[in-house]
Amino acid sequence: EVQLLESGGGLVQPGGSLRLSCAASGFTFTSYAMNWVRQAPGKGLEWVSTISSGGGSTSYADSVRGRFSVSRDNSRNTLFLQMSSLRAEDTAVYYCAKDLLPFVRTSSFGSWGQGTLVAVSS
Amino acid sequence: DIVMTQSPDSLAVSLGERATINCKSSQSLLYNSNNKNHLAWYQQKSGQPPKLLIYWASTRESGVPDRFSGSGSGTDFTLSISSLQAEDVAVYYCQQYYSIPPVFGQGTRLEIK
Fold first, then answer.
1. Residue B21 needs a FRET pair 20 to 30 A away by CA distance; which of A8, A23, A96, B14 works?
2. Which of A32, A45, A46 is the best substitution to test chain B (most B C-beta atoms within 10 A)?
3. By C-alpha distance, which of A63, A109, A39, A4 is closest to B96?
């Protein structure tokens, strides 16, 4: 069974930093691109970032480019999102999501974690 | 960026009746190289993460009840629930994965009438 467990969320002041983690199990982590998707309170879904299966290719939403950095440790089956220069509008539940198909990046989201809440406020 | 527009924003349907949600993209999602529409549907129940229902516009994800079906091609797509059950109350999102950035529709809230 695919399991994705996010951690690292919390309350942070504007301008601050936070590092999210997503521990993956139940599938061959090294075969899948991985994604972060966020959802502001009461709002819809917004794609944040994708990293290829090997980690060599990344992409970001315009709203976070230059402030967020995605990475992965394939030896530990873990995905990361380093967030800096945080703003109030970054407040959201951040979901880790496994790509739908192995070996190719589709940017469709086959499995999701439960999410971790990031709140940016003074 | 591709814009995804769902209609209606909310919908109330009686138990056992058919529910239909529409999704329109600002450009075609049909990829010539594989002749597939890069369109997915997700269900999000209250307090839960989204769940993939349909991909390639009409392929049902494993374990999804067959009362859920997806149709359409190009720029116009539909999610249908043939006989609404109480557990289908949720917000439904379409999402294009034809190009980066992947974009979701604004969501359609489905309730019981």
1. A96
2. A45
3. A109
Write out the H or E segment, with its range, that includes residue B54: strand B51-55
Contact yes or no for A106 and B97 at CB 8 A: yes
Would you state the structure tokens that stand for residue B88, as one six-digit string?
A: 């289908």
Q: In this structure, what token pair is assigned to residue A17?
A: 């930093």
Task: Tell me if A44 and B103 make a contact (CB, 8 A cut-off).
Answer: no
Q: pLDDT for B16-42, tens place per residue? A: 999 999 999 999 999 999 999 999 999
What's the CA gap between A64 and B73, in Å, rounded?
32
- Straight-line distance from the first to the last Cα atom of chain B, in angstroms, rounded to the nearest whole number: 36
* pLDDT tens per residue, range B39-96: 999 999 999 999 999 999 999 999 999 999 999 999 999 999 999 999 999 999 999 9
* A9 chain-B contacts, CB cut-off 8 A: none
Hey, are the CB atoms on A100 and B52 less than 8 Å from each other?
Answer: yes
In this structure, are residues B109 and B12 in contact, taking their beta carbons and an 8 Å threshold?
A: no
Which three-class secondary structure state does DSSP give residue B41?
Answer: strand
Tell me the Ramachandran region of residue B75: left when phi exceeds 0, alpha when psi lies from -120 to 50, beta otherwise: alpha
